[in-house]
Amino acid sequence: MLATTDEAPFATPYERDCARVYGLVARGLAHSRAELSKALELRSTTTSRVVADLAARRLILEVPGETAGRGRPAAVLIANPRRIGASVIYVASQSLSGALVDLNGHILEERTIALAPEADNAALAAAMAELGGFLVAAMPRGMSHAGTAVSLSGLIDIRGRQWLMASRWPKMRALDIQAILEPVAGPIEICRNLDAELRARAAREPKSFAGGALLLHWGWGIGLAYAVDGEPFSPAGGSFGEIGHWRFSVLEGRRCGCGNTACLETGAALWSLLPLLRRHWRSLGEDEAKLSEQFSNCDLLSLPEIDQAARILARALANACRLFFPNRIIVSGPFVANARLWAHFDALFRTEGTLEGLAMPQLASERADPNFEIHGAAAPLLRRAAEELLRAA
Ligand SMILES: [Zn+2]
User: Fold this and answer.
1) Does the chain have fewer CB atoms within 10 Å around its N or its C terminus?
2) Last residue of a domain, one of 21, 45, 80
3) pLDDT tens for residues 59-81?
């Protein structure tokens, strides 16, 4: 269940009861009025009133249960996953993709539009509007639309809801996402793709993400997200964790798409290494998911350039740890799918060490999975929409 509402501020005790009842049913921890009354120490009349109210708002459904012996089968309470849906638009390789998700995170509808590297603001705006309109139109009957979350790489202005720059589409500048999507599929939220991914990974395993956690993406670009107890750090403007544009003297003279030279990405990102890699393995594509499979069968470490990339990145990550002191670090992207390269990177990171007296953070590699990004981007919209319905007593 993507919308957990327990922490939300509710004005009246009755609204709080509604939220607690909905929370237990949605997590499958209570299936009847009797179980709810017991778990929440509510009077049975209160429980019945809350359940009737939530059923009238179609947040929960009463379905016939199994018969135990003779008599009428007791009804079972379940949360209605299709009561609310949210659209997510995200970048997948050289395309924009859209997905409509329900409260359980199931993807009900998907569409992808490929966009050439020459695509400009008008082309990206047209694709975004098409995806937004398509997903709203695809909603099943009885579903309310919570809005559209746009999950982006590159530079974004969260408050102004603008996409400032993306290395995949160098002709695009300051795309006004609010103006494009609000009339078609609002309300609109924009977020950094790495923040969305980290939020969803932490929601799945809250215990292991307690305290500070870092997500390092080593792929087409290189970027970092940071979360405390699963909630990503969201700076006022939107720019954060651009570790790929930290500058290193060993990379002096190499030009980067950001307008500078000597950035980490010029020696370690997929965009800078791919021409060299393709001289050795001709069939390599650009799609990160496909590359993860291909890289697992390539002897990447036979190339001194890959060794150098791993060394600089391990040092950059170790330095970032001296800034954030995370308990846990996740590294995702196609390079870490190569077992030998991952073991090498892990050893390099350990050699970098930490400050005396402090434990090394846990380091783990994760396979890229777009579902995390979709769930993490949709969750805030779904939560807000669920809270509004719970308040509408
Ligand atoms: Zn740069």
Assistant:
1) C
2) 80
3) 999 888 776 666 666 789 999 99
Encode pLDDT of 9-18 as tens digits.
Answer: 788 889 999 9
Instruction: Provide the pLDDT for residue 72.
Output: 67
Judge if 294 and 223 occupy the same domain: yes
5 within a domain of the structure (yes/no): no
Q: Are 89 and 97 in contact (CB under 8 A)?
A: yes
The reply to whether 115 and 93 lie within a common domain is yes
If you average pLDDT over residues 277-292, what whole number do you get?
92
Sequence-separated (6 or more) residues with CB below 8 Å from residue 39: 24, 29, 30
Report the DSSP pairing between strands 362-366 and 328-332. Answer: parallel
Instruction: Using the mean position of ligand 1's atoms as its centre, give its distance from the Cα of residue 272 in Å.
Output: 11
Would you state the structure tokens that stand for residue 55, as one six-digit string?
Answer: 């059923």
**Cα 247 to averaged position of ligand 1 atoms, centre (Å):** 8
Identify whether the C-beta of residue 284 lies closer than 8 Å to the C-beta of residue 291: yes
Q: What's the CATH number where 68 sits?
A: 1.10.10.10
- For residue 246, the CA-to-ligand 1 centroid distance in Å is 7
260 and 360 inside one domain:
yes
Tell me the C-alpha distance between 220 and 201, whole Å. 21
239 CA distance to ligand 1 middle (Å): 14
Where do we find the tokens 């996409």?
163
d(CA 332, CA 364) in angstroms, rounded, equals 9
Nearest C-alpha neighbor of 55 from the set 28, 75, 37, 85: 75
Does residue 310 lie within any of the structural domains? yes
CA 166 – ligand 1 centroid, Å? 12
What's the number of domains the chain is made of?
3
Give residue 266 CA to ligand 1 midpoint distance, Å.
7
Answer yes or no: is 219 within a domain: yes
Q: Is the pTM of this model over 0.70?
A: yes
257 CA distance to ligand 1 centroid (A)? 6
